[in-house]
Amino acid sequence: MPVKILMPALSPTMKEGTLAKWLVSEGAKVEAGQVIAEIETDKATMEFEAVDEGVLGKILIPAKTAGVKVNEPIAVLLDDGEGNKELEEFLSEIDKPTVTDDKPKTPNEDKIENNLASPPDARQQDRIVATPLAKKIASINSIDLSLVGSGSGPNGRIVKNDLLKLLDNSPQAEMRGHCTETSIPVSPMRRVIAQRLVESKQNVPHFYLSVTCYLQHLLSAKKKFEDCLEKRVTVNDFVIKACAFALHKNPAMNVSWEGDFIRQNQTIDISVAVAIADGLITPIIFSADKLSLASISEKVKELVGKAKMGTLQPREFQGGSFTVSNLGMYGIDEFTAIINPPQAAILAVGTARKVPTVFGDEIVVSDVVTLTLSCDHRVVDGAVAARFMQSLKKAIEDPVIML
């Protein structure tokens, strides 16, 4: 018997995704556990494995289709020996239009409906013979299916191509050729980023603390480290190590707001903000306080590479107890970052720069960096955050104490 292959939920928060690529074609033999497609979630591109074996009879959702709901049919798998007859019967059941109201109407109800002058509503559109994908396209583009007429599918069913032709020939399509604007589709990742950041700024009472740290000793330690071990490390690697040190010294900062209670995190897991094509992702350095500077550097390089390739696994970016966001490579002196709930804080790192500094009676040139901490005042008080920043500044300015 044919079996529907459903859009999988590849993360606990996933509600829809993009079917990025099919790795098998219609008519191909499929084994249980074989990777058959690539699915883009709101955070990464992940492989989708077949649960059953059989023959891929029909692909219902083509590659590069966005907004596919979890548990929506994306393909049909046939048993050995099944062919077009079984497939067509099964597809006819999937494509049957749904009628939301089968209850017989009373004469009064008929009279009321006949007097309504409003355009066809969602119930009338459900009675139109159209494929689910055609209905989705019509809904997105506010197309009244009752005005399309007979479709090019079997028995006049409206299919995807009917809607695409209608959109290409519409006055709006002609106008688009004369416009200087471009509509950019909202990716699943961008939609989630927008939702979470709005929620954070609306619901989390942010407050900010800034310190300027001198980098002479850190830059000297960085050079010695690279010369001795022949491994390149960055200022950001030192900052991550210093944050782990300061969180260990100030466990009251290593907390999360969970609504009904405050979670005291038992491990120091530092998220690192990474810019990618679709937005931002925060892979995690787990137990950062227990790692050497070299291990942190190697782990950051590995995670940044996987983030840019879109191959991070959910366990590598879901969670974390503290975030570091660095815009120093873009020449930004200082900035404030938005907290990623349920975390209670995020550190914004500016660029390392040279400034004139007064030492005694002399003016000398010093290398400095400005660090700005954003805190959730529901769970972190000013004095707690200030002590954390003292520990952080001490570790940055005298890295020997944390190495």
General description of the model:
- The protein is an alpha+beta fold.
- It has 3 domains: 80 residues, OB fold (Dihydrolipoamide Acetyltransferase, E2P), CATH 2.40.50.100; 35 residues, Dihydrolipoamide Transferase (Irregular), CATH 4.10.320; 201 residues, Chloramphenicol Acetyltransferase, CATH 3.30.559.10.
- Helix content is 32%, strand content 25%.
- The protein is built from 11 helices and 19 strands.
- Strands 9, 12, 15, 16, 17, 18 and 19 form a 7-stranded mixed β-sheet that branches.
- A hairpin with a 2-residue loop joins strand 18 and strand 19.
- The radius of gyration is 28 Å and the shape is elongated.
- The protein starts with a strand and ends in a 6-residue tail after the last helix.
- About 8% of the residues have low confidence.
Q: Characteristics of this structure?
A:
403 residues; alpha+beta; OB fold (Dihydrolipoamide Acetyltransferase, E2P); Dihydrolipoamide Transferase; Chloramphenicol Acetyltransferase; 3 domains; seven-stranded mixed beta sheet; 11 helices; 19 strands; 32% helix; elongated; dihydrolipoyllysine-residue acetyltransferase activity; Biotin_lipoyl; Acetyltransferase component of pyruvate dehydrogenase complex; EC 2.3.1.12; Single_hybrid_motif
